[in-house]
Amino acid sequence: MAPAWEADPSASFERRLGKSARELQNTNGRDGCPEIWELDNGDIAVIGRDLTDTYAARLPDGVTIRSDERLVILPGTMLSSAKPDIPDAQPG
Questions:
Q1: Contacts of 28 (CB under 8 A, 6+ apart)
Q2: Cα(82)–Cα(85) distance, integer angstroms
């Protein structure tokens, strides 16, 4: 069996996907700036609101959150603005 995916803590930020929170007017300019970034190893980093505890009791069947994982919410406009930067899935 293939090993489970693990995050690489040595990966660096490569490029923002989509527009910044400021461009989308999703920040007050002082704090609370959601972001989506591609790391130099191809993984994706998401900065958003941690609502793990809020959603824990109502996760869909088959969805679990490990103790070292967090459920993060970000504005829908942020993901929509990133769509042109995200490659289509490859068949197979």
A1: none
A2: 5
For 12-69, the pLDDT digits (tens) are 999 999 998 888 888 776 666 889 999 999 999 999 999 999 999 999 999 999 999 9
* Residue 42 tokens, joined: 């191809």
Residues present in the chain in total? 92
Give the pLDDT confidence score for residue 41 in this predicted structure.
Answer: 96
pLDDT at 2: 65
| Cα Rg, the chain, nearest whole Å | 15
- DSSP string spanning 22-91? TTTT-S-SSS---EEEEETTS-EEEE-EE-HHHHGGGPPTT----TT---EE--HHHHHHHGGGSPPPPP
| Closest C-alpha among 29, 46, 28 to residue 82 | 46
